[in-house]
Amino acid sequence: MKMSSSHSTLQITVLAAKFIAAPALMSALLAVGGCYAPQPTELYRTNKLPKEHWYALDEDDSRVEALPHALRNSLTQQRQLVALEEGTDKNAKKSLSPETTKKVAELDQTCNDAYLISFDTIATNPTPDLNGQFESWDRRRQNDSMIYNQNFRALADEWSRFWLMEMPGGTPYDTVNTTGRF
């Protein structure tokens, strides 16, 4: 049976439409349904860190009070050093030297780290990641895997107890348990 030219043109058009429409349809499905992508996480309480520098905060600021005494003393010394370098005239502030700028950056980083792990900060919310219903799928999957792993280990221990394999018998000599389970 011989096909007409219009029929073969129609077949070519349909094939071309399939090749063009298939990737477009797949991309539309991915855009609507989406792929699994882990959500970005943010370090807890980083929004409480100062925007500029730690030395600019007052002594009675709650963030400064959460720092250890040695860091508070370092902040006081840094305030004095910056005040000396900038001068007393507020309108004609001088820029800080590169050494002082480096020291300020180092102390800022140290204060950030100390504040995020301070007792006062942790005591305000000891479980920031326990979100209940809003727990991420990654966390739930990890928790399920951990529970399954613990259950299978317990099952293996019970199985060996059932078959009396945890205590080797039949020898008058002392034996050493090398399984690591008991």
Description:
The chain is built from 6 helices and no strands. It has helices at residues 5-33, 62-65, 69-86, 98-116, 119-124, 137-162.
Please outline the helices and strands.
Elements (H helix, E strand, L loop, with lengths): L4 H29 L28 H4 L3 H18 L11 H19 L2 H6 L12 H26 L20
- What is the approximate shape? flat
**What structural class is derived from the secondary structure elements?**
mainly alpha
Approximately how much helix is present in the residues?
55-70%
Mean pLDDT: 75
Task: Please give the number of β-strands.
Answer: 0
Question: Unreliable stretches, pLDDT < 50, 5 or more residues?
Answer: none
Secondary-structure element sequence? HHHHHH
Largest sheet: none
Rg from alpha-carbon coordinates: 33 Å
Tally of DSSP helical segments: 6
Beta content: under 5%
Quick recap of the structure?
The protein has 182 residues and is mainly α. It is 56% helix and 0% strand.
List keywords for this structure.
182 residues, 0% strand, mainly alpha, 56% helix
